[in-house]
Design brief:
The structure is a homotetramer. Chain A is mainly alpha-helical and about 280 residues long. Chain A is about 70% helix and about 0% strand. Chain A folds into two domains: about 130 residues, Four Helix Bundle (Hemerythrin (Met), subunit A), CATH 1.20.120; about 110 residues, Helix Hairpins. At the B-D interface, α10 of B face α10 of D.
Chain lengths: ~280, ~280, ~280, ~280
């Protein structure tokens, strides 16, 4: 009995090294293959949506997707059984994505329309960062994340403000241009207003009257000025973050990093720092 | 007589706490309900402008709007009678908005077209900042406001300059492309020029001749360079504002400012800092 | 004889005060009226290009423009005779603009098509800065100008690079999409490429083949990254300029301004500065 | 024998000075003529693609291109024989470009379609920087290059993230809008998504349903926020680069760095600074 148990444990351990580890050759190889399969699977779902290709290669696409789904299912089970705290994995961000990457295919037996949901597999591509395990890349990403977090509330305030203004400008254009020029309702005019403010400018709705064009001009100039604000916010935050990333050595006493370039004493323990 | 008076005063006080206060439960609840009603009212005005929905639910939309208008009217009267200096409120930014949020509905008895003006209620949504009472959010907004104010005159100079150039470029394109390619008049050509400079690019008017396309290319590259300016202005101002908001006191020993928020010792002299 | 001479000199002086001066009431009034007339004249030229308005008010527009042209001519002559060095004015930026603002109308006797050139009067609107004489505004403008000048060579390098890439990408799209999808020649494909890179996106030419759309996607992402560069350049320069605009008093010894916020000694004469 | 050899060597040397040198008059003249010929050759290839011009001037364009190709071939051979390490030149960036600038014309004897590849000559225009030999311009370019290199990994992380999100948003729009509104497949919907996120907005595909327009609005606002990120990254890096390039030495007395370029005394201790 014990032998079996230890066999099982040994198996569990080996699987863990391959699936979760990134230091061994097998671990690296597995990660690379996994990423390739994810990419392939996303491409397959995309190609299946192209009518001509689906008509021609329907069977090939269909079976390929099933093979990948089975592969993902086995991987998912192995991930659960080879980890100490399976629940923590299952409820983690990647755990949930791994699950909803395989569910739609099985559900498609009962509800064929759900199959398209397999596209959420694209989110598994975010594993790339983990797989490459580039400290550099992760550092950059986290630096970005910090700056974006610091900008967040400023940007929310800003977007809320923009939306309120868009409602007013949209209603104004609805009154001026009217349904005959494509501004068929206030919601549609608001849609136009945001298309213009963000400088996307599809041209599916465009002002035709002179007054409408004058107001549109004002909206564009406003949007032009407005685009400066989120950019300015993020720039300022990133500049701040970058500035604080210094070329000073960590403190010799307490190891605190990230000193100002003109710091002479550690801001954490007060110890003198040498360059 | 006095009892009545003091009754009235007590009523006034209680109303004031609910309407203007944000610390009591009743005050918070009132604010949240008010915001929800404002949002609902804006959505109703928007939906009414959609022909199909108006045809189907006209009565429901009509009576809902009236109920909300009466609710807003009562709120407006309560706001006036429960405050010490009613005139100050009436003439304040929010007081005027509160009034013009209810006026159009009453005016619509006499002039039905004015009803659409109810959309100005959207401005009442700006109360969100006051309601949430998030010091954090307000701080962010005021920081933004300061930076925008500092950028203001630079940006006005800049927009004036752009407008003058647009007149010249518009006239140039009018001469080159002419009415047969959609550039029917100088004002319309100026409209095209701003659509292009701001990179909106509807495509309702687009150059068709070779020379016109070459000039359009130059206008685009100009616009590309130009978009950098307001962005640069706001970025620089915000970077300035963000940098100057170290919340730490200057060092008590050497007076150095601009400490990190988590600094415990002065980076210049190594002295301990109190918050 | 002398009396006449001195009469002439007195007249010259008085005219100079009114036309060039901005301190007396008459000088200010003249500047304001002049600006209003310039604005009016630009609007008139614009309106004349609108077919319907020209048909209706042709005579009114025609005579108004002539009255303004005569007014500008008198002003031009007065400017020349009331200044000490007329040649300097005539050859200055504003002098040349003042001249080419009136020439087209007179030339239109012989070549009617030149009349549209009167639109260069729009450049006279730049006088606003001089007229308002707002030290603040001029300061802002010159700050901007400095930053733009510092960015200039970086931006020229950048635009040259973009143009070379556009030629290659344009030729690539010409080969892939071909004349049947609107990419009728390499120059036209380059036009498309710049319309896309600058995110203007008229939609008058848009890729129709799958490979074309993939390349277009890459061009857009490139353009997206590229727009960051001039913006970054201007932001950095402006941030630099703004940073150097300090809140320190000028040096008590030599009067040098613009000290760093943490300066303790004048960088020009080495004198100690008090806050 | 030796005389021939030394004759050859002298010839080699003289050619080297003319072709690679930029200090002698002959060297400068050669560089300028070369650049003009490159420009002419690019323009010729472009014009040949315009049907009307090709029909009219076919022979002229054809022979001009051959003359230029022969000129380039001679130049290429001279470059090889006049340099000490020909292989290093042949394998360098410019060496490869020089070769593929002439190959397509010769290949066009066998495969006429390859002729259009001559457009890669446009890359030779990058020689301008070397030819002008402006230390200033090169400095600017290298400063830019450094900032872009520092931003690179942040921007790659960012674009990868955007692409993953575009796949999901594209699939979502494909489900909502469907083939009847132009969203014929997931790849095409992804194309739409990137056209919108980058604010290009051709309008060849635009959402027609209400839910589709609401999601499009969200995508635009997202794109609006997103455009801030690469801009912010580059701004922050450039600001960093620009800031660190004080050309003054640190103070000899107290070691303070970062003096203004026109500083004569240390702003920290008042000591005189030598350049």
């Amino acid at each position: 009995m014990e032998a079996t148990n230890s066999n099982w444990e040994r198996f569990q351990k080996r699987v863990h090294v391959v699936i979760y580890g990134t230091n061994t050759f097998a671990g690296k190889l597995f990660d690379l293959i996994l990423l390739a399969v994810i990419l392939l699977s996303v491409v397959l779902v995309m190609l299946e949506s192209v009518k001509e290709l689906d008509a021609k290669y329907h069977d090939f696409l269909y079976y390929s997707e099933w093979i990948i789904t089975v592969f993902f299912t086995i991987e998912y089970i192995l991930r659960i059984i080879s980890i100490n705290k399976p629940l923590k994995y299952i409820l983690s961000f990647y755990g949930i994505i791994d699950l909803i990457s395989i569910l739609p295919m099985y559900l498609s037996f009962f509800f064929p329309q759900t199959k398209i949901l397999s596209i959420v597999r694209a989110l598994r591509l975010l594993r790339l960062f983990r797989i490459l395990n580039l400290a550099h890349f992760t550092g950059q990403a986290s630096n970005l994340k910090l700056a974006l977090k610091a900008s967040q509330s400023k940007i929310i305030v800003f977007i809320y403000f923009i939306l309120v203004i868009s409602v007013l400008l949209g209603a104004l254009m609805y009154v001026i241009e009217g349904p005959e020029n494509g501004f068929t309702s206030i919601p549609r005019s608001i849609y136009w207003c945001i298309v213009t403010l963000t400088t996307v400018g599809y041209g599916d709705i465009a002002p035709a009257t002179t007054i409408g064009q004058i107001i549109a001009t004002l909206v564009m100039i406003l949007g032009y000025g407005i685009i400066a604000v989120p950019t300015g916010i993020v720039s300022a935050e990133l500049a701040n973050k970058t500035k604080n990333t210094s070329r000073k050595n960590p403190c010799g006493n307490c190891g605190t990093e990230d000193h100002r370039d003109n710091a002479e004493f550690c801001y954490h323990c007060g110890n003198e720092i040498d360059n």
